[in-house]
Amino acid sequence: MNTEHHWTTPITAGLLRGALDLERTERGVLPHRLPARARQQIPDGQLAMAESQPSGVRLAFRTRATAVELDVVATKRVYVGAPPRPDGVYELLVDGRLAGRASATEGDTITIDLTSGAAQNRPGPVETLRFTDLPDKEKDVEIWLPHDETTLLAALRTNAPVHTPLPSGRKVWLHHGSSISHGSNATTPTGTWPALAAALGKVELVNMGFGGSALLDPFTARTMRDTPADLISIKIGINLVNTDLMRLRAFGPAVHGFLDTIRDGHPTTPLLVVSPIYCAIHENTPGPSAPDLSAMSEGRLRFVATGDPAQTAAGKLTLTVIRDELARIVQQRAATDPNLHYLHGLDLYGEADHAELPLPDDLHPDPATHQRIGERFAHHAFGEGGAFAAGNH
User: How many CA atoms lie within 13 A of 158 on its CB side?
Assistant: First the structure.
């Protein structure tokens, strides 16, 4: 840093928002969105990767520095046969407004074969990100980490001292969902639909959206139970279909158990259950999902449903079945839980939206659709009469 004086600030949990744990390694600290005890129970590499990707996680501090440097080790994902992924984006906000973007072009690399699930890891270098020409005044600074790129934080340097930010006074919104909530196909960390909704609702986001892994895992429910929050939402459905994980007989009790666990720690907190958005391939066709090999041969990533619609009679799950069951469960429980609410996923993105803004890979929304979902969630949840509206809690 080309300044007369500079300060290196230790990266501690006190400087991070949206992370539930901070793992110390030889090269730096790694933010996690599940605590260590939950991570010990993770059964697969997909969730292990997803929870380490810092969706919604940001460094937050107060300073009058005009220059900030952040040393990082990013983890690059390469999918065999698929187009190269864009580099993750780091966004620096000053007093809530975007003031700079940067990307790490190198780092560790994980190569994943979608057809077999095999993965190979290759270590890479530390890279320095620089943000300069910031306003020369005392200000609140946030650096949002890439939502879809595991990021080890090695060092934070500034040309003025760093202080803990003043309390925002905002409520904490804890959200759990699938890759759509995680931010798949959004291009920036503040462009995921939960980040957009949080900004519109003027709340502090803790995003437990895990790509491929919103599967009603008990350790996820226990983590939510133990995490301080003023507002809670869970978006359930698509991963249970595209993994073909359970049948209708198991689904209902699993939802009840998940909600029971959350209520053990948050008995009266506004709790919003959100059903799946529209996804044509799985509306009435069960999973599992699989990569479309013909599309991959053309360098495109698309997904197809491989189940048989007739199998719903035997209890296989589709998005239509899940929406009906979630609505029934919430209606039943709300009779004794007035702070439990339901939001129909098609009110966020429905068939008409799909005609206008189709899912590019038939599974994940593009940036414009993230914007639409975020705005609609904010309207339905934070707007007048919504589950998270001030008058409702």
Answer: 17
d(CA 326, CA 259): 11
Burial code of 273-284, b = ≥16 C-beta within 10 A, e = fewer?
Answer: bbbbbbbbbbbe
pLDDT recorded at residue 77: 84
Q: What is the pLDDT of residues 54-99, one digit of tens each?
A: 999 999 999 999 999 999 999 998 888 777 788 999 999 999 999 9
Q: What is the pLDDT of residues 296-309, one digit of tens each?
A: 667 778 999 999 99
Distances (CA, A) of 161 to 5, 200, 217: 10, 31, 42
Of 119, 13, 15, 8, the residue nearest 71 (C-alpha):
8
Smallest CA-to-CA distance from 158 within 134, 187, 177, 178 is with 134
Q: Rounded to the nearest 10 degrees, how much is the dihedral formed by the CA atoms of 176, 182, 186, 190?
A: 70
Look up the pTM and report it.
0.94
For residues 327 and 290, give the distance between their C-alpha atoms in angstroms, rounded to a whole number.
28
Q: Among candidates 270, 34, 96, 57, which has minimal Cα distance to 171? A: 270
User: Which pLDDT value is given to residue 300?
Assistant: 78
What does the chain come to in residues? 393
Rounded CA-CA distance 328/12 in Å is 44
* Dihedral (Cα; 182, 183, 188, 193), 10-degree rounding: -100
Taking the CA of residue 384 as centre, how many other CA atoms within 13 Å lie in the half-sphere pointing to its CB? 0
> Residue 380: CB partners within 8 Å, gap ≥ 6?
343, 347, 348, 386
The whole-angstrom separation of Cα 202 and Cα 272 is 17
Alpha-helix residue ranges (DSSP H) falling in the chain: 36-39, 45-52, 179-182, 193-201, 218-226, 238-242, 248-265, 293-297, 319-334, 351-356, 367-377
Q: Could you give the CA distance from residue 177 to residue 364 in angstroms, rounded to a whole number?
A: 13
